[in-house]
Amino acid sequence: MTFHRISRSPSPSAPPARWVVREHSVPEANRLTKELRIHPALARVLAGRGWRAGQECSDFLSPRLMGLRDPFELRDMDRAVERTVKAIRSGEQIGVFGDYDVDGVSSTAIMVLTLRFLGASPQWFIPHRIDDGYGMQSDRIADLARNGVTLLITVDTGITAVEEVRHAQSLGMDVVVTDHHLADSELPDAAAIVNPNRPDAIYDGARLCGAGVAFKFVHALLKGADVPAPEAKEFLKGLLDLVALGTIADVVPLKGENRLLAHFGLECLSNSPRPGIRALLKICKLEGRRLTAEHVGFALGPRINAAGRTDHAGTALELLLTEDDARAAELATKLNSLNTSRRSEEAGILKLCLKQAESQMESGEDSLLVVDDPSFHLGIVGIVASRLADRFYRPAIVLRSDPELARGSARSIPRFDVHEALGACESYLEGYGGHAAAAGVRIAPARIDEFRTAINGYASNVFQTRDMTPEIAIDTELDPEDISWELFDHLAKMEPFGEDNPAPVFLLRNVSNAGEPRIVGSNHLKLYVQAGTQRRSAIGFNKGHLMEVCNCNGSSYDLLCQLSENNFRGDSRLELTVLDARASD
């Protein structure tokens, strides 16, 4: 088990982070310890996050698939099922229109496999990120119509495709939209719209990803097609590996149904019978391992995403659909190669962006970074924008400035709604879309400079000093004597970790060095610390800037850390993952 690292930890270019300790009720922590028979440190973590003794907390620590809600609670589900069952039974040609990221590819695979299971022979289409752009396109819909498609099912897309759905209808198609993105003021006039986030949704509180929505539709579809319950249950369980990929990679909150889907999906992923998944695990050196959300986020997901970023996502979809071991190995190798190329190109773009960003930071006037260059790869600008936001703790927009049109991505930080900011400056833009944390942008190249000035003017009016300071939430202070495999195993009950359920962060006071601190790899801090009677190995990924604090000539310092397991050549040991450090008071 390896815990997630804090997603927005401070870097040399970001201001020092505020340490904020979560408050907890001591009596409530004691009740949790006794009632749930858990380690007191875990009880303090849960109490600080608002959990109370009772069935809800018990269900959180011991997830059960029977906790999934009835899919027919989703608006339009009955209409979507009725139209799709009719198409299957009458032998209509069905098309599936997906998206090019991990969630979109996983959703497409879920839908294609289910339609095949029910006897249909669906066609599918996933757009090319650069050639086609995001979302549905009328030309591609026309291609599907020429191929005889009369029912088009969207996955992870379609909620804003008002004109495209109208075009499909004019070509003789019915459209069933399954999506999770936010709608515009007008909904498409589709045969059915299954989306828990539609304005008139009755499925409150479920921030499902596209794969989650597709899974709910499939669940309902099997019922509507009268598949016997035992057979349907077995088939649905077999799809959970794909659901986990989309759910974790799309960074939706890992609470409620998402937690169930991720928890059981990771179990399925670890033992997947799918040749493509097995080949991907092998190339990531994860065979035989118990998988965590971090493995999806940092190993499997990036390789699947690499196809859509630098080539075509059809390669990733074929990997998930193939039943041939040899072909799966070829595709996994190709995805691995694409990911290596993506990382290399990302490093080059980041280097160029850092020069521009540092220049803007030196001016002292920019609260929001806007960088552009015609050489930037459009499939990678979003990742680089995230890197800039992390490094400088500023919202960042990275644009590829082609002669006719600049396109790019925006990434934000907590407490700043970048979608709202773009809306305030929309007179400078050709188009934009997204949400508070991430968005896509289109702008005429000649207007980039004035747009930079305008959006920074907006940001300076809404930002407060605390908004631009990183913050690390500390779950509880930890007695060094409590660091043990027993605690580690108890903390594992909270997995999978991710959005809205981060790995616990502990404060260790007055630790000292039990060896010389050093920098290893690319700016990683390696420590051996003495905490109480315990001597522990510790690693701080990209935390070389903490060397000054930790190399303290015999003085003690306070450490923020998580517990992790280090597996090396079959040897497993308990280790501290360093998040931050300060001189002790």
Q: What oligomeric arrangement do these chains adopt?
A: single chain
Helix content: 40-55%
Biggest β-sheet description: 5 strands, parallel
The strand order across the widest sheet is 3-2-4-5-6
What ranges have pLDDT less than 50 throughout 5 or more consecutive residues? 1-12
Roughly how many Å is the radius of gyration?
Answer: 25 Å
**CATH class designation of one domain:** Alpha Beta
In short:
Among the domains are: 18-23 and 475-583, OB fold (Dihydrolipoamide Acetyltransferase, E2P) (Beta Barrel), CATH 2.40.50.460; 69-223, inorganic pyrophosphatase (n-terminal core) (Alpha-Beta Complex); 345-468, Diaminopimelate Epimerase, Chain A, domain 1 (Roll). Helices cover 41% and strands 19% of the residues. It has 20 helices and 19 strands.
